[in-house]
Automatic annotation (TrEMBL), chains A, B:
Protein name: Caffeine dehydrogenase subunit alpha
Encoding gene (name): cdhA_3
Keywords: Molybdenum, Oxidoreductase
Cofactor needs: Mo-molybdopterin cytosine dinucleotide
InterPro entries, per the entry: Ald_Oxase/Xan_DH_a/b (IPR000674), Ald_Oxase/Xan_DH_a/b_sf (IPR036856), Ald_Oxase/xanthine_DH-like (IPR016208), AldOxase/xan_DH_MoCoBD1 (IPR008274), AldOxase/xan_DH_MoCoBD2 (IPR046867), AldOxase/xan_DH_Mopterin-bd_sf (IPR037165)
Keyword Transcription regulation annotated: no
Species per Swiss-Prot/TrEMBL record: Methylobacterium dankookense
Length: 795, 795
């Protein structure tokens, strides 16, 4: 190929459309005379429902239907527990509409469908629900104490799951330790806050029996499966389309929100399209959240700083339900040893029900908490042993020759043992130190202190198991006439730029321009099989599936072109949208090759065959297609990773903290990042930067707050602070590219990376800045001005 | 399998829906605010257009657009010639809207799109077209004479194509003949007259760029290809759906009617759905027709009646255009020797342009004409040699041991030499003679004559090359949860019962009930590749493709079930919707097998795997899917026939003709029919009966009439007579089943069979009845009372 698209800084195909406001989100789908849904939601964190009286709402002009749990037939169930695990007993999941009890403020109790949203909300206010409030405990540590009010009577001490994993022989190693560092760290609850809230619209065709659903989901194929299964439809009769989606970050892969099932049900029952567009408050009280964990971590070390054992005991807040099982704490517990060799590990957690919005993975999924724990502990170990923070890491980082490093006994979220597959951890740390000027920083810091300025350097390393299975597929098809290449896969984009990176993969294989490759995702009629977008897996799993499919199409194109041009396959070169006889000007367009691989007109008439310019691609005696031969220039293949592939990185920052105003200023922020081979550095940087922005949210601003009764008290963008452009510092990004040995493209996931270490970096930096002032260390994020004030005041 | 569906008289799945009026035809598709199209059509058979003034129409209230050839951009072309052949020079095809000239009454000149059909027709009447009429000749024999007015100035003597084929050494054989029979026969023009006229509706989504078209077509995939190509869209952006369609008979596979292209174009241009529902008059003057051929046939025989050479020279009326090339006369010319061994054949034809509705294949496609020619000639030969009509056939019919009988030199419509593959011709003839009581008929006839009643026996043998390639595909998928089996193929049904016969094929393979197999056809989003429904090919080509796909799914199901039940594959039996360990009660439902073949939840978590009731179907170490393994219980395969497979049959009837009223009464009608292995005898009989009904139309009633100026004079159901139930006699059907050696199922096509010999049988019978009265023989169908009167009066 003349120029390689893979690895190039190609601009995103989708941006012009989105920037011109021509995106088509769920609310933009034109529907004939749609009805609109609104929900009646619980105002109590925990209550028994004495009665629901919907008569007034039903009588309200313009109301088509009011559904309570009594009117939803097969949907009146506890929704499926998605990831079973024996550490859970009788896991509790949500019912589409509450029956008997409510478990968090915002839980849907009834759905009103009316001619417009205004009417639907008015009518929702007329639904009279008589609640009997019950006592609650929202504090994680108090919730597990004896006597705490229970979220579910079935679960003593509110413990939803209890799990312990061990790698190596931690007891023996701990006995040999010369130094032990113990700290308690806490990460608070945040939310994904996607720019577009969730949305679902549905239309049912009574004649064909086909249900079409537009859903701003990360998992259209799963939604189709659930709808078909619960509504008693065959999957072929259900089409789920995820159109343009304005950010997901995990929140949109909940599987299954009540509205995702109830809106299609209503569309079918009422014979009219129905839509529901979540508003921002509903996103805060009804869509899933994540983060709260409290870790008690111990590092058992030699005096040299070499950590020989790690013990971690933590609590994980799972909210009112546990639909995702132990996915988040399992990721946290298997990431707890970070990038360090630490051969002996014991990690144990309890998942705790609290009467709050359910918790499911949010970008990072347990890794920010694990990274915060191990990195804060390493800083503490360094301090206790009088070591430099870089040095203590150098002494523990996995060396290049140690890959793959297996942590036998620690099963990752894919059910397979943790195995760090490749990396250049030492080089990454050295690059960071160099770029950040770490060597000279102490002097700079000293100088500043003399001027009454408090500067600090923070750093944190992290690893990220990415590209989880089980599989994704890819379909690649070259169109006749136009020569355009269409690519389909089962997962879908919420703005990540799949349409560009997948196009790059295919463009190289087929020798076409990236803009001639059209990626169609998120439509169950376009691709039937797949899982979802989560776990930084799209590039790894769909990317490799598409790569393999494109390679099959390439082989087919070369064989067909060789036949048409009457040369050997080895003589064919694919470039510039055509197949060329190498070293000559003889060529045939890929469009013509695609046309010829459909043996359509040729077979009608022998004379017609002779009349065509080229021999048909599959010319041979006998049938137009040989047994097993398929028409068309297309192929479908699947990629199923053997296990997770581990990306990593190290971030560092220089901070200035004002002990009077308690303001934190980020002077510099450097990210050294390695996600294996990069398909498109620009998109990698976009992902990393976006992640870092969200990381700053979690480090300094974002905390979902509940009062003692479990009422959310900052469920809006005035009180819940997300970083704007003004709060996100410029970031210097340095790339390393250590290919993954686990997949043909050598890629690793990058979707979540950016956010993982930021809390640890910021805490490390603030602590470093304020060290001369003494006070408490920073082991709790987000770090608010009040917390800084308290720390400084404590001196 | 306990009971076999294949071969059983299963009721048609689709009938309850259709009988309850719940079918969904194009006009039933609910569209948001559709616009309606009407056409301005030429009132002249041949004219030059001086000017078109659409101003008044455009100004008419409610009109959205008026299109002439100047406003249709890329569509202002001569549409593709579908089947090229060197016997044609510069073949003429239709333009979507006339430019410069019109070539038949009814040709579209402009399209009006308005808020409703009423308004559109009013506005169409306001389009002022100034025509300069030109002279015409509609008589086929006069049209080829020097000096006849030309339809296309490019074609002297109106000859569109001229082709001659030779098998054996006819010149040498003719020199050896002891007797020559020469007759001229004529078959007149008819029309398919489907119960539902043609219809097309289209909707364009400007945001996604997707065009959806509902088209009552026999060839949705071809329509998609044409639309994509001509409108400059990629095929993935065009979805063509053929919903329920009320009969096609070839007329709906024209490819491409102007409205099929113009309506989608307008929907795209106007941003609103547009529909066009053809009315009956438009069907007569705008949709294709077929039949007129005039044959001069010679049989060169020995005195024994053995025909050693055949020469046939014929004219074929192709109407104003020749979109299908020489398909019809080529089928006629290669079927001309019928079921007879005749080793030396010379056949030559000219396709003749006439200023009439274009001619494309109509059920039978040239075979009724060829059968009429050879069978009438054999009757004449018998008469001339004083032989019994059965006996002269016996002496020439291909014997069982002679199969396959190759007619080298005669290329059939698939471009391959004619090769009669299998049959029991002699047995069929004997069965007919026996059932009809042929042995005793002469006595009966004599007796009747004594009573002044004129009875006649008619018979005709025919062969039919069926199941043409190039290919069709099948996709078979077992659904998780429900266990229902979905089957997709690229061609589509117009009422033939595909949904039942394809389901029978699959039901046996997978051991499920026929009603649990759902066949979805005619939707380019459901299956991407295929050709169309024509040439009695669906059961042969799609049937075998689906059979092969089902066999792949069967193998996959057995392997997966064996894994789940922990036995060898050989021990598994599929029946009653489940996989059973043979000889035991241990089983697992096919739904569960389908669920297990999607390695979805298993891979999330090792513990979850252990928790499932059965081992996952694809359990093994490493990735969830092995390289090349695909998820789900599904498969796609294609079938591509090596050449046509030849069905055959012989019909006979007893007739009574009243020489005074000229009424023809059918006393008995017997059909001996062999379409290879039968999938469903009830459906075979439905096809045969329907064909015979249409055959009686062509034999006694249906003739499209033009006046000298080329004006259709019976373009309605009052003047153009189609047989009602009262005109179709009871038919006795006897089946033979000689499997086709060419495909796994052993099937041959049956869609057209019934209509092929009826004209010859009726003519033979009337001639036999009236023989004592002398007069002209019957060599021209349809046979009207006037023709009988003339024949009788001639004595």
């Amino acid at each position: 190929m003349s120029t390689r698209s893979f690895g190039a800084r190609i601009r995103r195909n989708i941006d012009p459309k989105l920037l011109r406001g021509e995106g088509s989100f769920v609310d933009d789908i034109p529907l004939p005379s749609p009805l609109h849904a609104a929900f009646v939601r619980s105002p109590f964190a925990r209550a028994r429902i004495r009665s629901v009286d919907a008569a007034a709402a039903r009588a309200h002009p313009g109301v088509a239907a009011v559904y309570t749990c009594d009117e939803i037939g097969a949907l009146d169930i506890e929704l499926p527990q998605l990831i079973p695990h024996p550490s859970m007993t009788d896991p509790r999941t949500q019912r589409p509409l509450a029956r008997g009890d409510v478990f968090h403020v915002g839980q849907p109790v009834a759905m009103v469908v009316a001619v417009d949203r205004y009417t639907a909300e008015d009518a929702a206010a007329l639904v009279d629900v008589d609640y009997d409030p019950l006592p609650v405990e929202v504090d994680l540590e108090r919730a597990v104490m004896d006597g705490a009010p229970l979220v579910h009577a079935t679960h003593p001490n509110n413990v939803a799951a209890h799990f312990r994993q061990v790698s190596g022989d931690p007891a023996r190693a701990m006995a040999q330790a010369e130094h032990v560092t113990r700290i308690r760290v806490q990460v608070d609850r945040s939310t994904a806050a996607p720019m577009e809230c969730r949305a679902v619209a549905a239309m049912f065709d009574a004649v064909t029996g086909e249900l079409t659903v537009w859903d701003g989901t990360q998992a259209p194929i799963s939604v189709r499966g659930a709808l078909a299964s619960i509504l008693g439809l065959d999957e072929d009769k259900v089409r789920v389309v995820a159109p343009d989606v304005g950010g997901g970050f995990g929140q949109k892969v909940y599987q299954f929100y009540p509205d995702e099932l109830l809106v299609p049900m209503a569309a079918r029952a009422l014979g009219r399209p129905v839509k529901y567009i979540e508003d921002r408050r509903e996103n805060f009280i009804g869509s899933s959240q994540e983060r709260t964990q409290i870790h008690e971590i111990e590092l058992h070390a030699r005096r040299t700083g070499e950590v020989i054992a790690l013990r971690d005991l933590f609590l994980h807040d799972t909210g009112a339900f546990i639909p995702y099982g132990i996915a988040i704490p399992q990721v946290a517990s298997t990431s707890i040893a970070g990038a360090y060799r630490i051969p002996n590990i014991e990690v144990e957690f309890r998942c705790v029900y609290t009467p709050t919005v359910p918790v499911t993975p949010y970008r990072g999924c347990g890794r920010p908490q694990a990274t915060f724990a191990i990195e804060r502990a390493l800083d503490q170990l360094a301090e206790e042993l009088g070591l430099d923070r870089f040095e203590v890491r150098r002494r523990n980082l996995v060396a290049d020759h140690e890959f793959p490093l297996l942590r036998s006994g620690l099963l990752f979220a894919d059910g397979l043992p943790v195995s760090l597959d490749s990396g250049q951890y030492h080089r990454a740390l050295a690059l960071l130190a160099e770029r950040l000027g770490a060597a000279g920083f102490a002097e700079e810091q000293e100088l500043a202190r003399g001027q009454g300025r408090y500067l600090g350097l923070g750093l944190a390393f992290y690893v990220e198991g990415t590209g989880l299975g089980p599989y994704e597929g890819g379909h690649v098809r070259v169109h006749p006439i136009t020569g355009k290449v269409y690519v389909n896969t089962g997962l879908t984009s919420q703005g990540q730029g799949h349409d560009t990176v997948f196009a790059q993969i295919v463009a190289d294989q087929l020798g076409v321009a990236v803009e001639d490759v059209i990626v169609v995702e998120g439509d169950t009629k376009a691709f039937d099989w797949g899982v979802a977008t989560f776990a930084s897996r799209a590039a790894v799993v769909s990317g490799n599936a598409i790569h393999q499919s494109a390679a099959l199409v390439r082989a087919k194109a070369i064989a067909a072109a060789a036949n048409m041009l009457e040369v050997d396959a080895e003589a064919i070169d694919l470039r510039e949208g055509a197949a060329w006889v190498r070293g000559t000007n003889r060529h045939v367009s890929l469009a013509a090759v695609a046309t010829a691989t459909n043996p359509l007109r040729y077979a009608f008439n022998e004379a017609a065959k002779a009349a065509t310019q080229f021999a048909p691609a599959s010319r041979h005696d006998g049938p137009a297609l040989r047994p097993g031969e398929h028409p068309g220039l297309e192929a479908t293949d699947y990629y199923s990773p053997p296990c997770a592939t581990w990306a990593y990185g190290v971030h560092g920052g220089l901070f200035e903290v004002d002990p009077v105003t308690c303001a934190v200023k980020v002077l510099r922020y450097v990210c050294v990042h390695d996600c294996g081979t990069m398909i498109n550095p620009t998109i990698v940087e976009g992902q990393v930067l976006g992640g870092i922005a969200q990381g700053f949210g979690g480090a300094l601003y974002e905390r979902i707050e509940f009062d003692e009764d479990g009422n959310p008290i900052n469920a809006n963008f005035v009180d819940f602070l997300i970083p704007y452009a003004t709060e996100v510092p410029p970031v210097e990004i340095l790339h390393l590219e250590t290919p993954s040995p686990l997949n043909p493209l050598g890629v690793k996931g990058v979707g979540e990376a950016g956010c993982i270490p930021v809390g640890a970096v910021v805490a490390s930096g603030i602590e470093d800045a304020l060290r001369p002032l003494g006070g408490a260390p920073f082991r709790h994020v987000p770090i608010t001005p009040s917390m800084i004030h308290a720390a400084v005041a404590g001196t």
